[in-house]
Amino acid sequence: MKAIQKNIPANIFLDEFINFLKVERGLSPHTLSGYGSDLARFLAFLDDRGGADLDKVSRDRIVDFLLEEKERGLSPRSLARLLVAIRMFFRFLTAEGYLKTDVSEVMDSPRLGSVLPRALSEKEIGVILTQPDPGKPAGARDRAVLELLYACGLRADELVGLRLADVNLEGGFVRCWGKGSRERIVPLGRSAIRAIREYLPFREGSLRGADPGWLFVSRRGGAFSRQWLWKLVKKYARRAGLSESSSPHSFRHSFATHLLRYGADLRSVQELLGHSSITTTQVYTHLDREQLKEVHRRFHPRG
User: How far is CA 43 from the centre of its chain?
Assistant: First the structure.
């Protein structure tokens, strides 16, 4: 088997795949361009979240990509084309012996409104939140990051782009800018406020001439990247004994799912998430299997 080597850029395989489609399939330049741009966006998504090692891509990661593209406003038709391109790419890599298994093989062309995000349970969230050591500067920062993710359901780029002035601890809210530079105000919970307060003294001690405006400041004095945030979540999920497919999106999905589970109305959750359309929010109205089993047990006469 031709193993995909980590030091070979994924776009090398993309070029080989596009050439295969051109020579073997005889596809038109327009179609080749479409597949190329779709897959380039997918590979950029993987790279932004910790590296495009194609032999480590999971089905959950593909679903995360489709959900992000859906949230970005892509139509169902375009999303279906995206999945077709990804499936053809992985089928090619498997047929050529670069991959042992094709993780996209079991993925049907989606009725994309029914693609459900991976939401962490309340217990899983709680275990992850206990992993950072708040007595150390990095631990206090990481605890504040995780608490803020869960308290507000922020997107990755929204969180790393926060300025200190965007957080009002007295008023109990955070101001962020979502897609299309749309501003929204999201309440902070008590746990997040406490974690941020515990982090701020460490932050002041680590500035060292850095831009004092960023809430979370890197060693170089700038804002952290989305890739850093994805790695941080994966690190603490791993420490908690959970799947490494956990991501900032998992916290956002959990934020919405748990709010709805406890009775929040869909319009309020839409506002909190910053969705321009309520149809995007409706994906979170699913009930997990354990909850359905519990409802059946409690209310069915022979449950």
Answer: 15
**Whether 155 is catalytic:** yes
* DSSP assignment of 267-281: HHHHHHHT-SSHHHH
Catalytic residue among 234, 252, 253, 258: 252
**In contact, 79 and 71? CB cutoff 8 Å:** no
Q: pLDDT (tens digit, 9 = 90+) per residue, 192-211?
A: 999 999 999 888 766 665 56
| 220 in active site | no
- One of 3.40.525.10, 3.30.160.70, 3.40.50.1820, 1.10.150.130 is the CATH number of 10-114, namely 1.10.150.130
- Cβ neighbours of 163 (radius 10 Å): 14
Active site residue 261: no
Q: What is the CATH number that goes with domain 122-287?
A: 1.10.443.10
The residues with which 214 forms a beta bridge, in sequence order, are: 163
Q: Which of 35, 98, 199, 284 is catalytic?
A: 284
What pLDDT was estimated at residue 71? 77
Active site residue 179: yes
* pLDDT, tens digit (0-9, with 9 covering 90-100), for 246-266: 888 889 989 999 998 888 888
Length of the chain: 303
